[in-house]
Amino acid sequence: MKIGVKTYCDKEYIEHFTNKTDFIEVIGISKEDFLKNKKIIVHCKHERFKINLANKLKEKENIEAIQTAIEIADFCNSDRIIVHPGFIENESCSLKNSINLMKKFKDKRIITETMPGNYKNKNFLCSTPEELKEYIQKTNISGFCLDINHTISSATSQNKNPYEYLKEFIKLNPKQIHLGGQKLPEDITHIPFSRSNIDLKKALEFLHEDSEIILEVTQDITETEKDLEIVRKTWANRIN
Questions:
Q1: Cα distances (Å, whole numbers) of residue 181 to 10, 27, 215
Q2: How far apart are CA 129 and CA 215, in angstroms?
Q3: What CA–CA distance (Å, rounded) separates 105 from 139?
Q4: Which helix (H) or strand (E) holds 135?
Q5: pLDDT score at 118
Q6: Mean pLDDT computed over 109-127
Q7: Residue 169 and residue 77: Cα distance in Å, rounded?
Q8: Quick check: helix, strand or coil at residue 36?
Q9: Can you say whether residue 216 is alpha, beta or left, with left for phi > 0 and alpha for psi between -120 and 50 degrees?
Q10: Which bin fits 114, alpha (ψ -120 to 50), beta or left (φ > 0)?
Q11: Lower Cβ count inside 10 Å, N or C end of the chain?
Q12: Predicted local confidence at residue 240, as pLDDT
């Protein structure tokens, strides 16, 4: 296993964890000199930045967001770019729109991310294995990032066993893993593991030995240090 942490683009956070993790994931906001000479994974701007690849009316903004992520990846010499596939927010949105948009890009560093399905009044794409497979087959992307918390949310909304559901996605060979604490049934995600009630050992049990895990927790350095230790210990004991 390799493990890293995620930040929007906080210099202090990045500098602190550069030599404590295998890589750092940053949101593709801007090129910053402090990102150079580090193992960086770029995450394209998403719905928090009003980006939605499924919305035809936002095509200009969507393309600009992906192009910016590509430019930052070039700047950092990064070999991976994660993109959210989008969600249905009105009649201008569809899976087809998102697929057609991604076809415009030939960059094999791009992968999509599994999403939580019907979550907070948004119907997110690629929340089922079937839709994820269709998306990958019909676009130019090279694979996907399995967001464990999103997948648990999707399973819960469908009354499925979340850990069995995770196994279905793992069979599709994710290139990257996102993982944070999660509190159910409220479905509060991306929190420290000290406040989480999901079964972390079960969530990690069927991952491949060479999995690359990015922690999506808080931006509190002390809390993240603890979360790294929790995940490393749980990984070491996951099949005992």
A1: 21, 20, 9
A2: 22
A3: 9
A4: helix 129-138
A5: 85
A6: 92
A7: 29
A8: coil
A9: beta
A10: beta
A11: C
A12: 66
Q: In what order do the strands lie in the sheet with 118-119?
A: 87-88, 122-124, 118-119
- Tens digit of pLDDT for each residue in 9-24? 999 999 999 999 999 9
pLDDT band of 238, cuts 50, 70, 90: confident
Tokens for 50?
């009003």
Helix-strand-coil split of the chain, %, nearest 5: 40, 20, 40
Q: Which residues does 11 contact at the CB level (< 8 Å), separation at least 6?
A: 32, 34
Section 78-95 average pLDDT: 96
Please state, for a pLDDT cut of 70, what percent of the chain lies above it.
100
Q: In order of start, what are the domains of the chain with their CATH numbers? A: 2-234 (3.20.20.150)
Total number of residues shown for the chain: 240
Residue 214 · residue 25 · CB < 8 Å: yes
Contact 175, 144 (CB under 8 A): yes
Give the Å distances, CA to CA, from 158 to 117, 166, 212.
9, 13, 27
Residue 165 in contact with residue 202, Cβ under 8 Å?
no
Question: CB neighbours of 238 closer than 8 A, spacing ≥ 6?
Answer: 201, 204, 205
Amino acid occupying residue 35: L
